[in-house]
Structures are given as structure tokens and as C-alpha cells.
Write a structure and sequence with these properties.
Helices cover about 10% and strands about 40% of the residues. It is mainly β. The chain has a single domain (about 25-120), classed as Immunoglobulin-like (Sandwich), CATH 2.60.40.790. The longest helix has 6 residues, at about 10-15.
């Protein structure tokens, strides 16, 4: 088999550590989360990644952080087809207002702000037992 005829299945691209195998490696993202007075703040540093190519998504109760890596081009970000390179994912705490999550990029750091919801002060309910 000649290398020019080599085909990589999309499913393999999504699960393999392609960047370390083909692209010569990449820096590992650094993440740190802290609880503040009115929110959780997730700080993420992803060296070598253009902030325009970072993506933050919420699906159900999971926060996904990834950046786009082109499949068909030598330029990592100009191709029309891409696969997500996962930077991180986390289960969103129960006391976060999911609809109010926002992200900002400043000083080479992505910050995901997750404001508290009404459950942040705690929740208590006595359940009556029927007999």
C-alpha cells in the first residue's frame, strides 16, 4: 500500500490521538476551576490554539470544550471538514444556571463563567410518607 492512497476513516479520526501521531504533538491544555461568590469560573489555557477556533458547548448537563482541527488541509483551520480535538469536558454542577453560561477569552486564557441558580443556597424539602 502506498502512503498516498492511505485513507483514514472518520470514526478513527474522532477517537484517535491524531495530533500526537501525525502533527508531531501538541501542548496539553491546563484547566482550573474555582468557586466564586456568584458563579463557578473555569479557566483554560490552550497553548498554540487560535481563540477563534475554540468551541464551548453545553449538552444536557455536560460542558464540552474543543477546538477544530482540519481534516483535508495542511493548514489546521482553513479546511471545510474538521474533527473536534477535545480540550476538556465536565459534568455541570447541579447549582449552575445552564442557560446563563458564558465564555470569554482574555490574556491567552479562556474563561467559562457558570452563574449559580436558585439551588445554590441549598434545597430542603420534607417528604410526607403516605400510608
Amino acid at each position: 500500500m502506498r502512503f498516498s492512497n492511505f485513507h483514514i476513516d472518520r470514526e478513527i479520526l474522532l477517537t484517535a490521538d491524531l495530533m500526537n501521531t501525525i502533527n508531531g504533538g501538541m501542548s496539553k491544555p491546563a484547566t482550573h476551576m474555582e468557586r466564586q461568590d456568584s458563579n463557578y469560573r473555569l479557566m483554560v489555557k490552550v497553548p498554540g490554539v487560535d481563540p477563534q477556533h475554540l468551541v464551548v458547548e453545553v449538552k444536557n448537563n455536560t460542558l464540552f470544550l474543543f477546538h477544530k482541527v482540519s481534516v483535508h488541509s495542511n493548514d489546521l483551520y482553513k479546511g471545510s471538514d474538521f474533527f473536534p480535538f477535545t480540550v476538556g469536558l465536565m459534568v455541570i454542577p447541579y447549582d449552575v444556571d445552564i442557560k446563563s453560561i458564558k465564555a470569554e477569552y482574555e490574556n491567552n486564557e479562556l474563561r467559562v463563567i457558570m452563574p449559580f441558580n436558585e439551588l445554590s443556597g441549598g434545597y430542603f424539602k420534607r417528604i410526607n410518607i403516605k400510608s
